[in-house]
Write a structure and sequence with these properties.
alpha/beta, disordered N terminus, six-stranded antiparallel β-sheet, disordered C terminus
């Protein structure tokens, strides 16, 4: 970029930032290549960081996260003024979101909400669903039988009969049907987003984990049709029961968001529902997530692209992009599906994940690269954020999507969306053109065992420079060979443009000046 181009480009992005601020949308840094820049993203991609790890005693790591992510999502009641100030000083534009389970209640949450109910004239038992007959609940690794409180149950108290869910060995489930639960959870959420040590200072959002968790009437059911509150005499069908739960979940979410916006005096406060997998949104529970009354329910897709993602994922990529276009803000996580003892992931596969992020990139999208299994929070993802929550190629400025001649994956002509470069009976290569790059991702059968299988050479119609793992480029190529679940980022010239960042290769978490 010439020196004459820099001021003009910087001025443009500053004007755009002002417009976004006036609209009350999420503010991100829009300054390119300025030596004094402290924010983390080029306009073409925004990212978020997520972990259960408490950050109070890891302030250097919190600083690193702030300098790399637009959103930080944390667990634990760990948002004190020192941590909050550390992050905001590192990057004032980084927004903070509190993780809260929305399928079950942790013991400390139960105690807090029960105390709130007692102190505010409510019966604590009204927080929960209760079984009227002994009911089996399938949990991870097996099943448990919960006694029911009724003529056909073996429980001697209502507390014994509280309904359970599959997670954490059968923790007690939430009850969005109950007004007592809704008011108690609202108060609990406000407490959890309040920054300790200072008054009237709050986080910027709440992350409701596995939002549909009690809605599943399938193989992992909690048998909520056996509860006193939803089906006291057994006359309602399973479908009727779960339709009510679905309605109650939506209503409770809308009420929670309105309450927290009012209490924090922040109209852009976000209550984000985690749907886990894209299939849950668009196939399993479309009426819950794709509801006409709440089109802008902001979502998290935890498993957008994983090592098991194959050709069947392509329609979901279109669904997600359409939702982004319709105004939804999404936190989109992709992961390698390996444990801390399986670190040798082919670089071509990590490029596949990143390239797929660029296929669906949008101003409403925030991405996270996650090395490890979702169940491996005690391993790598819980430890070094720099290796488990970040891919260095994210630092490279590939520019913005550009309109191209020809049809896209929606069969529409002359758009800047992703399109099919090539296909055969077993695989499809998707592509998207950016002002500085061409990104490719090959979808086939999916699965770790298939990564790199069935390689085919594809002509590019011009010369490009492959982006390498260390943010350098290889020699110019006019064709590339891709196997299944492999991707590549091809720059249009060999000059790498990045923002200055902390030293992400240093595992000591010392922050570079």
């Amino acid at each position: 970029m010439s020196s004459s181009e820099k001021p003009r480009l910087n001025s443009f992005f500053q004007r755009q930032r002002k417009k976004l601020s006036l609209l009350g949308t999420i503010i991100v840094s829009l300054t390119l290549l300025a030596s004094t820049a402290t924010a983390q993203n080029f306009p073409h991609i925004k990212t978020f960081g997520f972990d259960y790890a408490p950050l109070n005693n890891r302030l250097a790591e919190a600083t690193w996260l702030a300098q790399h992510h637009d959103w930080i999502i944390g667990g634990g009641n760990n948002w004190d003024i020192q941590l909050y100030t550390t992050i905001k000083e590192a990057n004032p534009d980084t927004r903070l979101m509190r993780y809260l389970a929305y399928h079950s209640l942790a013991p400390d949450a139960m105690t807090w909400m029960e105390n709130w109910a007692s102190n505010n004239g409510h019966d604590p038992e009204n927080i929960y669903y209760h079984y009227h007959s002994d009911s089996e609940v399938r949990i991870l690794g097996g099943s448990i039988t919960v006694p029911g409180f009724g003529p056909n149950g073996s429980a001697t108290t209502l507390a014994e009969a509280r309904a359970r869910v599959r997670w954490n060995g059968g923790w007690v489930g939430i009850n969005p049907t109950s007004i007592t639960f809704r008011r108690a959870f609202e108060a609990y959420a406000l407490y959890e987003i309040s920054v300790a040590g200072v008054s009237n200072t709050f986080l910027d959002g709440v992350f409701l984990d596995t939002f549909d968790g009690i809605q599943n009437s399938g193989p992992w059911t909690s048998n909520l049709q056996n509860t006193i509150e939803l089906n006291p005499d057994g006359s309602r069908s399973i479908e009727e029961v779960y339709n009510q739960i679905q309605q109650d979940l939506l209503d409770a979410k809308i009420e929670l968001e309105a309450y927290l916006k009012q209490q924090t005096d922040n109209n852009s406060f976000v209550v984000n529902a985690n749907a886990a997998d894209a299939d849950i949104v668009y196939q399993w529970f479309p009426d819950l997530y794709v509801d006409q009354r709440d089109k802008t329910m902001h979502l998290t897709i935890e498993y957008m692209v994983t090592s098991t993602s194959g050709r069947s994922r392509i329609p979901r990529l279109r669904d997600v992009y359409d939702d982004l276009e319709n105004g939804r803000k999404m936190l989109i996580r992709s992961q390698t599906n390996v444990t801390s003892t399986m670190q040798d992931i082919p670089y071509a596969f990590t490029r596949f994940i990143l390239a797929t992020h660029y296929l669906i990139n949008h101003e409403n999208a925030y991405f996270m690269y996650h090395e490890g299994s979702a169940a491996n929070y005690g391993g790598t993802p819980y430890g070094n954020f720099r290796t488990s929550h970040w891919h260095r190629n994210m630092e490279v400025n590939i520019g913005v999507p550009v309109t191209r001649t020809g049809t896209d994956s929606w069969n529409a002509a002359n758009t800047d969306r992703f399109y099919e470069l090539a296909s055969d009976s077993g695989s499809s290569v998707l592509a998207r053109e950016y002002s500085n790059a061409l990104v490719l991702a090959k979808f086939g059968q999916g699965g770790l065992a298939n990564i790199g299988n069935n390689p085919v050479t594809y002509q590019l119609g011009g010369n490009y420079y492959p982006l390498l793992v260390d943010n350098t480029t290889g020699t110019a190529v006019s064709s590339v060979t891709l196997g299944e679940s492999e991707g590549i980022i091809l720059l249009k010239n060999p000059v790498i443009s990045t923002l200055p960042r902390p030293n992400i290769t240093n595992s000591s978490f010392e922050i570079s000046p």
